Amino acid sequence: MSLLILGLLIFLGAHSLRVFADGWRTRMIARFGANAWKGLFALVSIVGFVLIAWGFGLARQQPVLLYAPPAVLKHLNALFTLVAFVLVAAAYVPRNHAKAAIGHPMLAGVKLWAFGHLLATGMLHDVVLFGAFLLWAIADFVVSRRRDRRAGTTYPAGTLSGDGATLAIGVALWAVFAFLLHVRWIGVNPFA
C-alpha cells in the first residue's frame, strides 16, 4: 500500500501545483522555460503513474474488504465510466457543449470515473486509489472554475458537429477500454 500512496502523492501532487502553488509553478516556468517544465512535469508524472500501477498491483495481492457493493452498482459504474470517457473526450474535441458549459470536462470525467469505481468496488486499495482521485478532481475543478471566473475566461460555444465528434470518440474509446483493455491491463472484467 505504501507504493500506491507514494505514487498518488507524486502523481496527484504534480497535478495539484496549479491548485496549491500556482505562483511557484509560474515562477519555475519563467525560470526554466515552458519546454523544460513540461519535460520535468512529464517525467514526474510518469514516475508517479508507474508507482501507482505497481503499488495497486501489490495491494491487490493482500485485499482488505471494507464493504461489499451490490451487483447493480457495478453495472451503474459501466454507465458512469461511459459518461466519463465522453467528458474526457470533450476536453480535447473543439467546440462542444460540454466544454462550453463546464469548462473543465476532463476533471468532471475523472470525478465521475472515481465515484463510480468507489460505488462498484469495496477493497481498501480501491478506496485509496479512487478516493484520492475523486478528492483531487473535486478540489482541482473548484479551483479551476474560480480561476476562470476571476480571469473572465469563456469557452467557445458548442456546435452539433463538436458534440457528435465528442460523443463518437468518447463512446469508441470507452468500448475499446471496457471490452478489450480493462481485462488485459487491470485484470478485471467490468461486466462480470
TrEMBL record:
Keywords: Membrane, Transmembrane, Transmembrane helix. InterPro entries: NnrU_dom (IPR009915). It is a multi-pass membrane protein. The chain crosses the membrane at residues 37-59, 71-93, 113-143, 164-186. It is found in: Membrane. Residues 3-190 form the NnrU domain. Pfam families: NnrU. This is NnrU family protein. It comes from Dokdonella soli.
